[in-house]
Amino acid sequence: MNKLNKTLIAIALGLVTFTSCKKDIPTYEQTSDTREGAWLSVQKAVNGMQSLTIFPQVEERKDIFTVNYGGLGLPADNINVDFTVDQQAFDSVNRVRATLGQPALKPFPAGSYSLDKTSGTIQAGSISSENISLTYNPTKFSLSDQYLLAIKATNSQGYNFRPGASTVLYYAAVIEKAHNKTGWSASVSSDQASEGGGNGIAAALIDNNPGTFWSSTWSPANIPFPHWAEVNFGKELYVTQIGLTRRQNNANGFKTFDVLGTKDGTTWITLLKDQKMVQTELDMQRFPIQPQYLSKIRIVMKDNFNNQLSTHLAEIDAIGY
Fold first, then answer.
1. Greatest CA separation found in the chain?
2. Tell me, what's the pLDDT at 227?
3. Nearest to 94 by CA among 135, 141, 146
């Protein structure tokens, strides 16, 4: 075999080896610069509206998101993504809310947030960008308002975003709700345990069951007004309203009452004075207080709708954040 033939054979074998090695690379690991069938997405945009925590009102909280690449294989070149406020998405959300009769969301207050970078990069051969960090200051937000921030990701290299996967909607608000009663305890000025069926006793006031009730003592003799019921939360809770639910099968409970509260467990202050129950209302009746942290509350009942000496109550709730 002459020298030329040996050289040609060697080149041919090298090409075969190279082609074989290339075929051994799995399709999902091969790189490509094609835009066809390739998509970008921000996962938190796909997941729907993101709720940010603004209570308790500390000075700084963070949330992070990334931009992801989806396609056959991996990108051959860096993919650059820019981030801007999406006013169009903000306005669209509020138009929908208006048609539903809901109040408009406010934009995040000036100076309340920042992005650590206004652009990110999906490196060649990767499927995700670095973390993009949103830093926000809860103390800049009013607890009585609802806010929205829309952050949009864009690309100028010809890559498309999946539908609904380019704009992150950040929602910031606190929603009043009844606090969980786990760990609570109740005490009363008197009771009537002989009512039976879980009724008549202090525990009925915090059992989450409006069908049970506490009753002051009426047998063998009535104990006259005032009556009181006290709830110990077992910890400090931020309270904005007191909820009272009357006995469901008897409307002749107390009418006028005060509410006292304490944060440290020993120093009591008057939260509400001379409030009136609605005799015919079966659902929880809410009584707003000055929002504050409390560890105990006491309901002081002063008189009755039909001048009876005894009274009763189904449930006590503390509403807040």
1. 126
2. 98
3. 146
Q: 20 or 143, which is more confident?
A: 143
Dist CA 179 CA 192 (whole Å): 27
| Predicted structure pTM score | 0.75
Among the listed residues 178, 177, 119, the one whose alpha carbon sits nearest the alpha carbon of residue 153: 119
d(CA 37, CA 148): 33
What is the model's pLDDT at position 292? 96
280-283: long-range pairs with CB below 8 Å, 24+: 280/251, 281/246, 282/210, 282/245, 282/246, 282/248, 283/245
Q: Indicate the pLDDT class of residue 26, thresholds 50, 70 and 90.
A: confident
Q: Across-strand partners of 258?
A: 300
